[in-house]
Amino acid sequence: EALEGQLCHILWEEVRNHKESWPFIMPVKKREFPDYYEVITRPMDLRTIKNRLNGGRYESVDGFLVDMDLIFSNCSKYNRKNSDTGKAGRALKQFFEKRCSDLGLRDLKLCRVQEGAAPAFGGGKTANSTSSRKRK
Question: In terms of Cα–Cα distance, which of 48, 52, 62 is closest to 4?
Answer without folding.
Answer: 62
